[in-house]
């Protein structure tokens, strides 16, 4: 699936509030995707930076899209593990999420996600495990 096909799937397969994040699929190829996430005022917590919950939701969504780009379609799956390390706060107008499938078997898939701020600095890293249903 290419970037435009994945973009069209966001409102179709994810919860409505995920579509409201405003993620834009910039590229997709064989188990890898790159997304842009605008940093909306509703994502900012009292410390003046984007909240971690938004980062984790974007990372989880990116990995599902990366899996779809590898499989060529949506296949039911569920997150088993999502571990996120926050390296720096995100205070720029947007950030980029780069997700890649590391390994995909018959019942489990593993992935890695980098989140960089608008200046290209690594802000968070996540690893994921999914059960394919």
From TrEMBL:
**Which InterPro entries does the record cross-reference, listed alphabetically?**
ACOT13, HotDog_dom_sf, PAAI_dom, Thioestr_dom
Say yes or no: keyword Hydrolase present.
yes
Mind listing the UniProt keywords for this protein, alphabetically?
Answer: Hydrolase
State which Enzyme Commission number(s) the record gives. 3.1.2.-
Looking up Pfam families in the UniProt record yields: 4HBT
MF terms from GO for this chain are:
hydrolase activity
Q: Report the domain of life of the source organism.
A: Bacteria
KW Hydrolase (keyword) present:
yes
- Thioesterase domain: which residues? 48-123
- Give the UniProt family note: Belongs to the thioesterase PaaI family.
Q: Which PANTHER family match?
A: ACYL-COENZYME A THIOESTERASE 13, THIOESTERASE SUPERFAMILY MEMBER-RELATED
What is the protein name for this chain? PaaI family thioesterase
The species is: Roseateles aquae
């Amino acid at each position: 699936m290419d970037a435009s096909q994945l973009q069209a799937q966001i409102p179709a397969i994810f919860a409505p509030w995920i579509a409201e994040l405003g993620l834009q699929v910039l590229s997709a190829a064989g188990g890898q995707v790159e997304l842009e996430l605008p940093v909306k005022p509703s994502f900012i917590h009292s410390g003046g930076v984007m909240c971690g919950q938004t980062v984790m939701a974007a990372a989880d969504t990116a990995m599902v899209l990366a899996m779809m780009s590898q499989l060529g379609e949506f296949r039911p799956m569920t997150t088993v593990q999502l571990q996120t390390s926050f390296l720096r706060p995100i205070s720029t107008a947007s950030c980029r999420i780069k997700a890649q499938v590391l390994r995909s078997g018959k019942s489990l898939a593993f992935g890695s996600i980098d989140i960089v701020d608008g200046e290209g600095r690594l802000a968070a890293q996540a690893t994921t495990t999914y059960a394919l249903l």
